Amino acid sequence: MSTVTDLASANGTAAAPHSSRRPQTPHRGVGASRAKAIASRTISILSTVMVAVAIAAFLFLALGPRVFGYQTSTMLTGSMSPLINPGDVVVTVPTPISEIRVGDIITYHIPVEDHRVETHRVAEILTNADGSMAVRTKGDANRRADPWTATLQGATVDQHILTVPYVGQAIRYLRQPLVLNTLMYGAPAVLLIGLLGSIWRKDPEPSASE
Predict the structure, then answer these.
(1) What pLDDT, on the 0 to 100 scale, is given for residue 201?
(2) Across residues 190-205, what is the average pLDDT?
(3) What count of Cα atoms within 13 Å lies in the side-chain half-sphere of residue 97?
(4) Which has the closest alpha carbon to 187: 91, 48, 89, 81?
(5) Domain-wise residue ranges, the chain
(6) Rg over CA atoms, the chain
(7) Tens digit of pLDDT for each residue in 32-74?
(8) Are the C-beta atoms of 61 and 171 separated by less than 8 Å?
(9) Could you give the 3-state DSSP secondary structure of residue 99?
(10) pLDDT score for 161
(11) For residues 74, 72, 54 and 50, what is the CA-based torsion angle, rounded to 10 degrees?
(12) Of 161, 46, 146, nearest to 92 (Cα)?
């Protein structure tokens, strides 16, 4: 017998076999899997935000006016700054002209030049010879009142109730052909990548070591 066996027998214990197996090292794919999961989650969040913003914009600009009766327009100049700045969306509601007072902000067609839509504050209320109502308006940032007198046509006029900052600028930007096409074809691609990322997120489970 060997010396090791004799010593083990003498002590009454069996000699433990020597193990040559090394400690297991972390799987090499853990870092790549984690990065893939983070990228997939980021894409999923971005696509969800894009869809939510698109739905909110549709509800506010398209469905809201039909359901709640308000109107929206984009401020193009700084004549009403700092209350309403260029690119802000002006929200108005039809109001009986008899309820309009000096100091109210209204949106109306000017009676001169190109008859464009203007959003200014009422500076003076006049009554025409035929009993109809006319107004003089002024932009808050302008030194003088507008050089015209506008007769309010119909029973109502659009009165300002709310300003939504920056949204109009975003809408104008989104209407550019390049951006519109990018969103039209890019959004589905982002959703597809997010779907594929969710599939790739889970790696196959490694087989048990023998």
Answers:
(1) 58
(2) 64
(3) 18
(4) 48
(5) 37-66+170-200, 70-165
(6) 36
(7) 677 777 877 887 787 788 778 777 777 887 788 888 999 999 9
(8) yes
(9) helix
(10) 96
(11) 40
(12) 161
Separation between Cα atoms, residue 176 and residue 6, nearest integer Å: 91
pLDDT band at 200 (very low <50, low <70, confident <90, very high): low
DSSP alpha helix (H) spans, the chain: 3-11, 29-58, 64-68, 167-174, 177-200
Residues in the chain: 210
E-assigned strand segments in the chain: 71-74, 89-96, 105-109, 117-127, 133-138, 150-151, 156-164
Q: With a cut of 80, say whether residue 26 has pLDDT above it.
A: no
| pLDDT on residue 157 | 97
What's the CATH number of domain 70-165, 2.10.109.10, 3.40.1190.20, 3.90.220.20, 3.50.50.60? 2.10.109.10
User: ∠68-91-146 over CA atoms, to 5°?
Assistant: 140
Whole-angstrom Cα distance, residue 27 to residue 25?
Answer: 6
Task: Using alpha carbons, select from 60, 154, 64 the residue that is nearest to residue 109.
Answer: 154
Look-up of token digits 């193009």: 76
198: nearest Cα among 39, 20, 13, 70:
39
User: At residue 39, what is the residue type?
Assistant: A
